[in-house]
Design a protein that fits this description.
The chain is 72% helix and 2% strand. The chain is an all-alpha fold and 185 residues long. The chain has a two-stranded antiparallel ribbon. The N and C termini lie far apart (126 Å).
Length: 185
Amino acid sequence: MQSWSFGGKVSFPPRFRQINHKFRLQKGLVSWLRGFAVKRIVEHLNREKRRLYSIAFLAFSAGCVLYSHVDATRLGLPLPVLAGFIYMGLIVCASAITSYFLPKLTRVTDAVAVTRLGFALWIASTQNYELAASPMIGATIVVGGAAILLQVRSWVQVAHQNVLETMSPAFAFDASPQRIKVPVT
């Protein structure tokens, strides 16, 4: 039997060294891919930073307004402020994940953030907190309001186009110059 030990150090046969080398390559590839993915995520967050800041502000404001009627303190913070921080953390994380994996839905997340603040202001102004306690009704109002908010832009474009077509004379948009015949007297 052949010994693979040289000078008291244990060494593996060449075929085991080859397997170990392949494992190191695979491990290096996995760590490189992991680093590449983290780099892409960080770049995405840097690109979306301003949008996420605005969503964070809207979510924090909505949480504070929605719980403004509660006069309690938790963890050394007033409950509306704590609720605002919780709203902000959860909504910004959900918005960042949504914009990373589904980038065409970024306008929807922005519209939902605006309508969530509008819903919170409406609840606080009417003091109808039973509506806010029902998640189904609250979500329906917020998402429905976001859908209407997203459609307003297309409605304005269609209305503007219709007004231009019906109110303006056709010759005003003719690009070719026309000769004017002046009667000779």
